[in-house]
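Let us walk through a complete example step by step. Step one is to write down the protein sequence. Step two is to encode the small molecule, zinc ion, as a SMILES string so that its atoms and bonds are unambiguous. Step three, shown after the inputs, is the structure prediction itself.
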Amino acid sequence: MHEKFVSVRNKLIVLGLAALLAMTAELKAESCVMIADADGIPTPTLYYDDRLFTLEPAFEDYQFMLADACDAWGLDLNAGCDIFPMMGAIDWNAVATICDGNKVIVYDRRLSQNVGYDGALAVIAHELGHHLCKHLGIKPANYTESHKRELEADRFAGATMRRIGFTKETALSYLHLLAELPSESHPSRAERRAALLAGWNDPQTGLACINE
Ligand SMILES: [Zn+2]
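Step three: the predicted structure of the complex.
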């Protein structure tokens, strides 16, 4: 019995590593795979910034934040918001990803020290935007496409905050964490500020990404 268990566990570890190596070979910035933990239990693991992070289901407060963001658009688990909120210590950041076929939002709880709890909702809304705008699964062709996706997620976050009833200032509460200058993946802080404000000012446009 025990031996069988160990053999199953080893098989899972090998499968997990093989999947991970395959993904690494594709040079995806972020990938999520199931890897057996020390007890042999398959555990969602995020390959992020060249490191592996074990993920856990989010505590209730973040589950509620995601539910509030979905609710603002009339979406729920059965309609568009079939997304699992998870947590992991991913460098004070948040990521939208697909784990073993499941839509996931990973949030580093420590980020709330910098953005506050209302700001955390804006961050989660940004990641939700990536899922709803169907940005996942296909790598952006170039930096223009990557920037466009980030701005769509920011616009969605601004719109969501407005629909929930948050102030403009709260909708902008993660802005100070963003790099001032553009990178290959992300636009400049000024561009992202404009997108957040555009969403807040005209929340109808929050999901314009779907029709594009
Ligand atoms: Zn993003």
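Step four is interpretation. Residues 126, 130, 150, 153 surround zinc ion (CB under 6 Å).
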